């Protein structure tokens, strides 16, 4: 399926996304980088790191989910109104293969933008010896939140 | 609904679960403690910590998911055969309220054990000023893996 | 976990739910009955019927989902404003056991009501020889829709 | 993302899938047709029909899920061993737009085949006046069941 393309709702979508990402301490804990930002599509990369692993030395499923959730959340955020903040309502992740590799690439894509509710999908790839392998898929529902003092960006 | 009660399949379920938890570096990164282990039910607690937060200062949804996934995974593990390792096939999380509080309690419960596939549910609570609030629910499917050299415990 | 109790937002919640249910042709196709309506909790029952089965003679997972989705949707609807219609944003179902039995009972319960977004969970039971067995669980997110001409009730 | 291509495990995958589909009474109730069968990919079509609707005249979300679940289930079935039957472990569906249209096309695709557990994704399209619109996506986990007397095909 060809991905749809989207128009951002304001020129500041890129800067605003990068600023919000910079405020996610969890992304620093993951060693994650915001690799690309486009309207409706965000890519996050991170290296394998021992503090993120489960008992077999693979990335913990929850850590894969953390990076994928941010990729999906920011993909949605790029299409939201300037005054909106983004919260995740729910996500579901299927782990297709153990998260082993030198590094990981997480791609979040909007499949249905909305004024209040936005639906995204995420794909996680493990990179090892130059080869990429799909290791997880995510379905994610976001809410645009407006006018709550403690929730901005 | 009353929770079902389960019989462990071997006497070592408690020790084995604690040993595997101790090997999850991700749990150390979360500052998480294995608070209780019973057949088919595991509880994990963790304090709020800045490195786990998203842009609004709440625990990142993925970090909530990480702790809940371990609670569910180990709940299932307590009922698995001695030679089995546990992997998460998929989980889905609904975020009911922002993850704000002094500390968090994650409860994983088996709702359907199986030789190969086990289904669990998880409940995440935020604790603030002595009050508990349900902030997230998880549905989780696990697989018992036997005979793969690189996957044990 | 004890279920929370809820206050309906208007006296007509019961009648309005029954009227909307009566307009769901899919419920007639299922032979389903609205067995009980309470604020935040709705119960639907249906007999086993051959036109609803999959290739092994069990109820098709999608038919179980259809009844559970209505139970969850109407559970949420009982707490929505008078002018709101209800739409399902997403649901996830875990099939715990084959849907075999003489009849089935579907219980939808609100776990987090909201002005726009409501989260419910559903439990499906098969009844056979007087015994009930949990066969499926659902997590479900609903949206209250206001002011769309073609979507009412 | 380009879809992966798969090799069937035996020559009879097509015939076996068609025979099993013919035994799903639920598909007759839906008026559904098995439009195409390929290794790892199955397409089901159905016309809009009043008995499948919810209160607004759209296809009931559960009926969309029923057809999508069969599309995903049979997509997985095409890659399973000859002696295996297929059961759905779980699925999650996101409803992106009301299911309104003259007819509907459901596409199930395997994203990760496995000896025991197979993961699929489904896409549902509404067709109206010659135009197609994506109305729902599904993530689905299947189990290959062998050696249970009452579960075949």
Q: Can you give a write-up of this model?
A:
4 copies of one chain form a homotetramer. Helices cover about 20% and strands about 40% of the residues of chain A. With about 150 residues, chain A is α+β, with helices and mostly antiparallel strands. Chain A has a 6-stranded antiparallel beta sheet with strand order 1-2-4-5-6-3. The mean pLDDT of chain A is about 95. The first copy, chain A, starts with 12 loop residues before the first helix and ends in an 8-residue tail after the last strand. Chain A has helices at about 15-20, 25-30, 60-75, and strands at about 35-40, 40-45, 85-95, 105-110, 115-130, 130-145. Chain A is globular. Chains in contact: A-B, A-C, A-D, B-C, B-D, C-D. The interface of A and D includes residues 1, 92 and 119 of A. Strand 3 (about 85-95) of chain A pairs antiparallel with strand 3 (about 85-95) of chain B.
Which key terms come to mind for this protein?
homotetramer, 153 residues, alpha+beta, six-stranded antiparallel sheet, 3 helices, 22% helix, 40% strand
> Average pLDDT value of chain A?
93
Multimeric status of the protein: homotetramer
Rg of chain A, rounded, reads 15 Å
Question: Mind describing the biggest β-sheet of chain A?
Answer: 6 strands, antiparallel
Looking across the biggest beta sheet of chain A, what order are the strands in? 1-2-4-5-6-3
User: How many angstroms does the end-to-end distance of chain A come to?
Assistant: 31 Å
Order of helices and strands of chain A: HHEEHEEEE
Beta content of chain A comes to 35-45%
How many E-type strands of chain A? 6
Helix count of chain A equals 3
Basic shape of chain A: globular
Helical amount of chain A: 10-25%
Biggest interface pair, counts: A-B, 40 and 40 residues
Question: Uncertain runs of chain A with pLDDT below 50, 5 residues or more?
Answer: none
Task: Please state the structural category of chain A.
Answer: alpha+beta
């Amino acid at each position: 399926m060809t991905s749809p393309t989207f128009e951002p709702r304001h020129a500041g979508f890129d800067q605003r996304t990068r600023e919000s990402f910079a405020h996610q301490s969890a992304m620093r804990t993951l060693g994650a980088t915001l690799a690309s930002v486009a309207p409706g599509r965000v890519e996050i990369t991170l290296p394998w790191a021992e503090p993120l692993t489960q008992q077999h030395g693979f990335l913990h499923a929850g850590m894969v989910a953390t990076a994928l959730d941010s990729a999906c959340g920011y993909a949605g955020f790029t299409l939201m109104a300037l005054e909106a903040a983004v919260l995740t309502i729910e996500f579901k992740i299927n782990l297709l293969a153990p998260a082993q590799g030198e590094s990981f690439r997480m791609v979040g894509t909007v499949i249905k933008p909305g004024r209040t509710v936005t639906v995204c999908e995420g794909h996680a790839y493990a990179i090892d010896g130059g080869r990429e392998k799909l290791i997880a898929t995510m379905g994610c529902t976001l809410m645009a939140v407006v006018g709550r003092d403690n929730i901005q960006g």
